[in-house]
From TrEMBL:
Annotated Ketosynthase family 3 (KS3) domain residues: 5-409
Listed name of the protein: Beta-ketoacyl-[acyl-carrier-protein] synthase family protein
A cellular component term, taken from the record's GO annotations: cytosol
Species this chain originates from: Candidatus Desulfatifera sulfidica
PANTHER family per record: 3-OXOACYL-[ACYL-CARRIER-PROTEIN] SYNTHASE, MITOCHONDRIAL, POLYKETIDE SYNTHASE-RELATED
GO molecular-function term, one example from the UniProt record: 3-oxoacyl-[acyl-carrier-protein] synthase activity
């Protein structure tokens, strides 16, 4: 067999999102359009709406281990174990040297560095009070490495820095490594501990891109005329990826098959998105999947609630899909923007559509921006389709990186 054509499937999903720590509860929240965005207080900055996760951090690792590691590592360890449990896999089913761990990140180390600077400020900036754990906590491979230590995985591990396209990029990496026969199983996903960094909030505020509202649950409102920016969220999602024949051999539940993907670059601006390159990325992913726009049932948008960002993506979708009629939704309206975990969390929230045939809504849209008025945009209430076969998942990031993953309902 041509390895580049091997079928790669999702057999496990572990997640932590604002308001949910498992896929079933997450799906219920999304279908109900229930937001758990809350107001938090940040040192130096003040209050801001944010998405905060509550998950059993000591389910798979002791409190002492969590304290030595990072919150990003806590997310990764929890979600990796949950993904294996949902896949019905013991961690030693595969040779540990043949398992790869690929974790997408928007940033890492900022939280730990801010915390240490704050700590030594209490001691007149005496660096004797700087923790000796700082270096291993802040290296970019840390969250992936913490997963390997928890599970005894001796295969390759690394983090993928691709801004807010990183979650999708990690899935793509997992697919490629399986097809290259470098690994027999991949744990691929993304994590975000961004709510621990006042610098991220301050930067978005300085850019005029931080979402605000009297009711924090209304702060994330992509496509609405009154939208005013991003709601920062933490969270994580990790998938088990396997070759189809391996999954079938052990009778695994298959959540979906990754049939297409693409990554490209705008090569234009540090922060401003560009519709033509986004459109090219979507078209490349469809071409690789051997699908047409008419084959797609759901487009999960990246739209973050910034004026230009939402409009550029809508232009891109319109140029690719034309008169095709996929339903279009946005998960960030409910959970905020989970940065490096955004793509994988948002895909996870839509995967159950293959079973329930429902499209979860985009919420908080009272007055739709005419420049975002795409056909079949699912607003405020879920809708049902007769059958769900294909999901296209968009994730775009700063410095002009675009990623698209296409997942299809598994059929023999």
């Amino acid at each position: 067999m041509d390895n580049t054509q091997q079928r790669i499937v999702i057999t496990g999903v572990g997640l932590a999102a604002p308001g949910a720590d498992n896929l079933a509860d997450f799906r219920k929240k999304l279908l109900a359009g229930t937001s758990d965005i809350q107001e938090i207080d940040l040192r130096y900055f003040g209050s801001a709406p944010a998405g905060i996760c509550d998950f059993p951090e000591t389910k798979y690792r002791k409190k002492k281990e969590n304290k030595r590691g990072t919150r990003a590592g806590c997310f990764g360890v929890y979600c990796a174990h949950e993904a294996l449990a949902s896949a019905g896999l013991a961690h030693d089913y595969y040779d540990p040297a043949r398992i790869g761990v690929y974790i997408g990140l928007t940033e890492h180390g900022t939280v730990e560095t801010e915390n240490e600077v704050y700590n030594i400020s209490k001691f007149d900036y005496n660096v004797d009070y700087w923790t000796h754990h700082h270096n291993p906590r802040t290296v970019l491979n840390n969250p992936a490495g913490e997963i390997t230590m928890s599970l005894g995985i001796t295969g390759p591990h690394y983090s993928i820095g691709a801004a807010c396209a990183a979650g999708n990029a990690s899935l793509i990496q997992g697919v490629q490594m399986l097809r290259l026969n470098e690994v027999d199983m991949a744990l691929a996903g993304g994590v975000s501990e961004s709510t621990g960094s006042f610098g991220i909030f301050a930067s978005f505020k300085a850019q005029g891109a931080l979402g605000e509202a009297d009711d924090p649950r209304m702060a994330s409102r992509p496509f609405d005329q009154s939208r005013n920016g991003i709601v920062v969220s933490e969270g994580a999602c990790v998938y088990v990826l396997e070759r189809l024949e391996s999954a079938l051999e052990r009778g695994a539940k298959i959540y979906g098959e990754i049939v297409g993907y693409a990554i490209n670059s705008d090569a234009r601006d540090f922060v401003l998105p560009y519709a033509p390159r986004q459109a090219e990325c979507m078209q490349m992913a469809l071409d690789r999947a051997g699908l047409t726009p008419e084959d797609v049932d759901i487009i999960n948008t990246h739209a973050t609630g910034t004026k230009q960002g939402d409009i550029e993506e809508c232009k891109a979708i319109a140029s690719v899909f034309g008169n095709a009629a996929p339903h279009i939704n946005n998960t960030k309206s409910i959970i905020g923007h989970a940065m490096g975990a955004a793509g994988v969390l948002e895909l996870a929230g839509n995967l159950p559509a293959f079973d329930d045939n429902m499209v979860h809504p985009t919420i908080n849209v009272s007055h739709l921006d005419p420049e975002c008025a795409l056909p079949n945009l699912v607003l405020n209430e879920p809708v049902r389709r007769e059958r769900m076969s294909v999901i296209l998942n968009n994730s775009f990031g700063m410095v002009g990186i675009n990623s698209v993953v296409v997942v299809q309902r598994y059929t023999p």
